[in-house]
Amino acid sequence: EAGVTQFPSHSVIEKGQTVTLRCDPISGHDNLYWYRRVMGKEIKFLLHFVKESKQDESGMPNNRFLAERTGGTYSTLKVQPAELEDSGVYFCASSPKPTGFFPKAFFGQGTRLTVV
Amino acid sequence: ELKVEQNPLFLSMQEGKNYTIYCNYSTTSDRLYWYRQDPGKSLESLFVLLSNGAVKQEGRLMASLDTKARLSTLHITAAVHDLSATYFCAVDRDGGATNKLIFGTGTLLAVQP
Description:
The complex is a heterodimer of chains A (116) and B (113). Chain A is mainly β and 116 residues long. Chain A has strands at residues 5-7, 10-13, 19-24, 31-37, 43-50, 53-56, 65-68, 75-79, 88-95, 106-107, 111-115. Chain B is built from no helices and eleven strands. In chain B, strand 7 (61-66) and strand 8 form a beta hairpin. The interface between A and B is medium-sized, with 27 and 23 residues.
């Protein structure tokens, strides 16, 4: 079974440009999460989708970040325009719908974003 | 605000030695997670601890949870080079089970031959 996959693995862009990160969750997982780790700091929750709906986007840093999950399958996270402080590693995770014991999330390998 | 503090941030140890990583969190939580990350790889779930006094072991790693002290430990026994990685603890942000996690800063473990 394929795990959570993220594209690209690395991205280097100039300040002011736009970047779109993609996450393909494990097939059939209703829940999809975005996290990011800014250099030297802890991994922070950004938002949570249940299928195509945003259930919680309280961790999104500002309105330059836009997440979508079309059709409840893959998700994209767009940063527009990118700023230097957006550099970091962006992780995606997914988990199935709970049936009894609450399932843990499975993480992707992350996208390393560098804004120069 | 829920905080998760992990120490040490960096740990260099020799093969064969024992050591412990500590994880303190600031509010009640139903579950505590330990993850491992190798460079460029995904976060791999090691343990999920659900109750006070819970202890789980996998190979040379043993995790425990004291919910009264809000403390979890990850003990490494007779370290080997393959254990070199970054280890994170995390608790659920809402205190329950939502997978919206608050992570510690991570402990970079380097096991020297």
